[in-house]
Amino acid sequence: LGTATPLQHSKHQDAGSFDFIIAGGGTAGLALAARLTEDGTHSVLVLEAGLRPDTVALYQTPGADLQVPGSPIDWAFSTLPQPGLNGRQLIYNQGRCLGGSSSINGLAYTRGSSSIYNLWASLGNNGWSWEKVFPYFKKSTTFNPPSAKNVTAQDYDVSLYSDGPVQLAYPPYVYAYPGSEAFVESLSALGLPKVEDLNGGTNIGVKHEPFTMDNRYRRSSSYDSYYMQARDRPNLKVLEMSPVQQVILEKAGDTVVASGVVYTDYASGQTLNATAKKEVILSTGALKTPQLLMLSGIGPAETLEKVGVQPYVINENVGKNLQDHIYFSVIAEADPSISYSSLYQDYSKLQQATREYKEAKGPLTAPVGLAFGFEKISSDTLNSIGASALTALNRSDQAHVEYLYETIYYPNLPTPYYSSKEYNTSYVSFTAAILAPTSRGTVSALSNSLSDPPQIDPQYYTTPEDRALAIYSFKALRKLLAEFATHNFTIGPNNGEVAPGPNVQSDEEILDYIRETAAPVWHASGTCAMLPREKGGVVDEKLRLYGVQRLRVVDASVFPVIPDAHTMAPTYVVAEMAAGIIKGEYRS
Ligand SMILES: Cc1cc2nc3c(=O)[nH]c(=O)nc-3n(C[C@H](O)[C@H](O)[C@H](O)COP(=O)(O)OP(=O)(O)OC[C@H]3O[C@@H](n4cnc5c(N)ncnc54)[C@H](O)[C@@H]3O)c2cc1C
């Protein structure tokens, strides 16, 4: 690289050199760092923009999972006004701390259908079929058996887990389980089977949710799991409050090479350079990674010109292909014995629950979402509801809708359908998420500063298929509520339904309710897709960036197609796969 042209920022003070520099100490970043440092041959620097998660002590408490978003360890982005949501802008939470979103999320652990990974492989990604990724799912997890089997649908198949860093468990909390059990029974009555385990590649059926928590019911994020096991290694350096501002690119003839990063050290107030002897790896998440690439000179020509960044590699695919799951609820008034509502209305109850939690007991051992069911809709039905594109898109062999049981009024947003809630009234929510969205959004840069948030435009419900699945699943939620009401836990007319209520009946009324109340499931992915470049790709099957040497992306950005599941486990699998690929390439 004798004739290299340094980027504009490369004159800052040098903070040292490392074999690998990982931007972002989140879910994937810390998992990858732990794997790359385990045999002692590579030195790794992790630069994380946020703080340690225990800055917000509640982050470890499963029952406080809705209190942590919005705290200082959340980026709390917002979307552009969404045409499919009657112009609403949504707050978009993302972890801003070590552990990233695994430190603030809902703890639900799901892998999805084998067919999704087989689809990834068939799209041009050799080595990513279910058969190939499954060992890495297994390697990353340990399942802690329930101490007492209080309820049904809390089984698991021991052969699907090993002794990996991420701890999985069911909560011991039985108080809310009569409602959760009734939900499981009600979904079974609607044709969804109770299954032993959803994590073996067949993602259809009903279960109590397994959560990423240890046997004391404390959150097991990538910080608590991978990082805690690796933190004393001399070859691992992890810096918090150190946002990466830019990847340093050098040009030698036609070749562009990543040689390090520019980052800000908030503690000292300095802007520093760090050098990567082997590679720079971006793990800043599906919303920040495309923005960081753009601000480094890699992205769509028009955006780079608009924000005034020197172009290094023009790739129109950066920031495209944004996919997400979105959900909405039918909400019912419920017997207080099965609801968490009173916990947040009566602070003496919350104090009592906090005391119990210190003994690993009580309601705070469980997140507010307790059980879920995954439905694969038949091709005939997909055709009849106007979602036939899903059969043509090779997405017929997967779960299309997820049903969730939440022990509160959820989502708790002011909307035209929000009726003010009376003190001492309790609620449960029946929630549906669309798992096979055909809408695609974008992420872009608004300015040439990473301090500005990315411009997020998910385009929810902008395709007929997404709207058809939404209306279908809303009607299923009402059937589910009617079945649930036979267990005598709901209060009042219409099976206890308080939102939207009986005035909403026609498809148009249902769609309007959904548009006014839907909230993201925060599964943003796909914005630097692992695909052939001509098919929309940003990275190849080894997660290497097209057009740049020594630069990879390892986070949820690379999913070519969003799995029919919550996205934390698939993100861990991307990190584990990346570690295997990278170690293989640099074996001495
Ligand atoms: C509120 C919420 C609830 C969720 N619930 C669930 C659930 O129950 N189950 C499930 O499976 N999934 C859930 N998810 C989704 C899942 O957590 C994410 O898909 C997954 O964790 C994404 O991992 P990642 O590594 O791609 O990004 P992240 O884990 O978000 O990591 C990105 C990291 O990069 C850091 N960063 C960003 N920019 C910079 C920069 N310039 N320099 C340095 N660092 C930077 C961030 O601070 C962050 O730590 C939820 C997500 C959220 C936000």
UniProtKB/TrEMBL annotation:
Annotated active site: 523 (proton donor), 566 (proton acceptor)
Keyword annotations: FAD, Flavoprotein, Oxidoreductase, Signal
Cofactor(s) the protein needs: FAD
Protein name: GMC oxidoreductase
SUPFAM superfamilies assigned: FAD-linked reductases, C-terminal domain, FAD/NAD(P)-binding domain
A Pfam match: GMC_oxred_N
Taxonomic lineage: Eukaryota, Fungi, Dikarya, Ascomycota, Pezizomycotina
Residue ranges occupied by any Glucose-methanol-choline oxidoreductase N-terminal domain in the UniProt entry: 95-118, 285-299
Binding, FAD: 244, 522-523
